[in-house]
UniProtKB/TrEMBL annotation:
UniProt-listed InterPro entries: AbiEi_N, DUF559, Restrct_endonuc-II-like
Any one Pfam family match given in the protein's UniProt record, by short name: AbiEi_4
AbiEi antitoxin N-terminal domain mapped to chain residues: 2-34
Organism in which the protein naturally occurs: Microbacterium oleivorans
Ranges for domain DUF559: 162-255
Superkingdom of source: Bacteria
Protein name per UniProt: Uncharacterized protein
Amino acid sequence: MTTADLRRSGLRRSAIAAAVRSGSIARVRRGTYAARGTCRAVREAAVHGGVLGCVSAARHLGLWTLAPEGETHVWLQADGHRFPHDGCRCVDHWDAAPSRGRLAAASVPRILRQIWLCRGVEEFFVAVESALHLGMLTPEGRAWLQRTCGDGAREALEAAGADSESGLESLLRWRLRGTGIALRAQVLIAGVGRVDFLLGDRLILEADGAEHHGSAPARHRDLLRDANAAAWGYVTLRFEDAMIVHDWDTVRAAIDGLVAAGIHLDHG
């Protein structure tokens, strides 16, 4: 909130000063205030001179992101200023910002476009699928992205769907798009249950995030599930998130090896 915002709400300067003294609001920089309980990232963006943008805004909304935490991406006013501060690790975004007045929060399409410009197509695809899955990207927003982004982003928009249930699944889908083999997500297999991906007819690919697969009971459940899949003639490859994100060559080699042997095909 700016001083002008607070004055428009009916507060006099003496009331603003009293609110600061009581701790209900805090002065984060000259003319800018934050309400009690405002999260660290939003406050840091305000200190820097703007609002959350790019992957920081996406993370704040609950969208999947691949970028490591630490940096704060800030959307700044076109005619404004940036304010480096103690411990500043802010990344500036100036794209199409309003020329005057208070900078409103970035829209989901704007956030996604910033991710494409800043982080590349792969992370853009992951964030787009997350927005679709959560119902945050409207047809109008998707059409705007089609008009304002480049060819690589348009390819990602064409490929994106709403059925991936994690960023790992989206990343796996994007990186396997050129295999020429049918890849289906969230497939229900009799005797096994719903699997993350089915490559071809028989190769199950599971993307295991630590939050759902790290415990001993979860590991037992996964092993039992894989055994049931084998009994029905399926082969399961299970990858943890660190492998998919940081050791893709090993993941791809494992998949390519089974595909080369024809394991993914139904020979019956």
